[in-house]
Amino acid sequence: MAKPENKSSKRWRKKPDKQATYVKQTVDRNIDEESLLEPEQGIVISRFGQQVDIADENFETIRCFLRKSNEVPVVGDRAWFRRQKELPTGVLVELEPRHSLLKRPTPHHGVKPVAANIDLIALLLAPEPAFSEVLLDRYLVAAQSSELPVWIIMNKWDTVDDSQKDAITHRLKLYQDLGYPVYPISSKTGEGVEALVNDLTGKQLLLAGQSGVGKSTLIGYLFPNMEIATGEVSSTSGLGTHTTTASRLYRLDSGAGRETYLVDSPGVREFGLWHLEDHDIKQGFVEISEIGEQCKFRDCKHLNEPGCAVLAAAKSGAIAASRLKNYQHLIQHFDQPYI
Ligand SMILES: Nc1nc2c(ncn2[C@@H]2O[C@H](COP(=O)(O)OP(=O)(O)OP(=O)(O)O)[C@@H](O)[C@H]2O)c(=O)[nH]1
Ligand SMILES: [Mg+2]
Ligand SMILES: [Zn+2]
Domain range for residue 237? Predict the structure, then answer.
């Protein structure tokens, strides 16, 4: 890959676009251009306002300042940066093109980027805080709209007895049959983690899931030498306490150039899908969208239309009633958040 050209190149004069995807203020007035070393390649591991932490080739972190000409960096971005001579800091030069950009809805009907270059979403569920198919289906719709595969990780497997395991396995079998891989694990005892990590080798993934399901605990298990904050699930509400406040990328080195990159992200407080359209909701229910091809009307919403193949399939048991119910609710109310 060619190094970026110097500042006079045309691409530095791109106009900021409407979505404000460029850094708003310049913070580099005091940076002495002469003090900058040759550009190096790295990966954005965390972002704080007008600064980013970039990991170099050896995965050592350099705090870098942003410039007005920079596109807003996101965790997971591959980037070029320049160190400042004799200082622990540097400046961001340029981001590499992304192959994916995962966004999530904000409480005020906007969307914000969460992570770049993600290959798959590892969706953590847990017996506590209790998981619901309604929330699971919302996650699957959101992931499908980003065209990212989802793996379902059932964490805290050490906390359930055999009959609870059977019940959970049965609930998740529906999703497994739809093509979503399911991994029961314990981030406390490590049960199942090795097999999971083995299958994840070489990928860049986002750990997603409600607050308190154990995303950071899994990171802590994988990186025992790092201090990673985790929080108790409240005994009164049964909910997590939103311990992680910023996304951060970690690298697992499996040797022979097979690194795995994991992004720990904060659990969402409310889960809206208002940035999606009917089409996305339909696509997010894979079996419904497939059978929906046979409906009499092309724009059939599978609510009560004549000749609806989906309603017929649900009646005959070919589609799970719970999935149809969640789909029908979402297609009518996806502008409302799930809290
Ligand atoms: N027994 C058991 N407890 C776990 C396991 N994984 C996580 N926990 C506990 O669950 C609680 C929440 O874990 P966190 O890792 O902070 O959850 P999180 O998903 O990162 O939550 P946010 O950062 O708020 O989004 C902590 O008290 C953990 O010790 C597990 O596999 N087994
Ligand atoms: Mg966390
Ligand atoms: Zn239909």
Answer: 101-264
